[in-house]
Amino acid sequence: MKHFLTLLSHEVRMLLVSPSTYIVAMAFLAFMGFIFTGILEQYSKAPQELSPAIVFFQFFWFPVLFMVPLLTMKSLAEERRLGTIETLLTTPVTTTEVVLGKYAASYLLYLCFWGATVGLFYILHKFVGETRFLDLGPLIGGYVFIAVSGLFFIGIGIFASSLSRNQAVAGVLCFVMLVGVIVGTNYLADSAWFDRDLLTPVKEAADYMRVIAHRDDFTRGVVDTRQLLFYLSGTVLSLIFSILSVEAKLLHS
Fold it and tell me: What pTM was computed for the model?
């Protein structure tokens, strides 16, 4: 892994010079700013039971469904389409280093985008000056959830990018996978059809993988090690599959 940092710095530079990165950043911040403004309007009209941070993170899934595919779809798909990944792997680097370098660069940018939203809460605190609007428990828990779940989400994006030479196809694949993980598990866990005794294991598995419930736990300050294991194991598996997919494509090319 001695070339990992070199590859990481290269990938970060490539992301920073890409116009699409800034388009994604502007769209993401505009959307989250719009959501935050709507939350403040609700609180200005009538008292609310929930902390603004809890309501803010309830909408995490929507930008994730679009931001992650846009950040990751070019990572491996574009390299394969241009044939540069074969050239890159003729140098003294391994497939693992290449995949991890691209993964880490996308994840760092993902964290930076979400980190920029801290400014929204800072502005609120600066102008309102009331600590009750800045509940640190849900705020810290929400960002920890974003960081932990992002490991898995970015891993899914890298895996999707490893499956195709076409970045648009990779983006669609990533979107579908994220919908299955975030929305699909929530639907399965709530579905009455799985209340049958025979399907109890399926319902329990859906409850365990229910990302929406994980978000609620984190914003309440509840950190379950089983949830951490889910995201970490999912991340490891997605990266392993990405490495195997790249190597398999190289063998058949």
Answer: 0.91
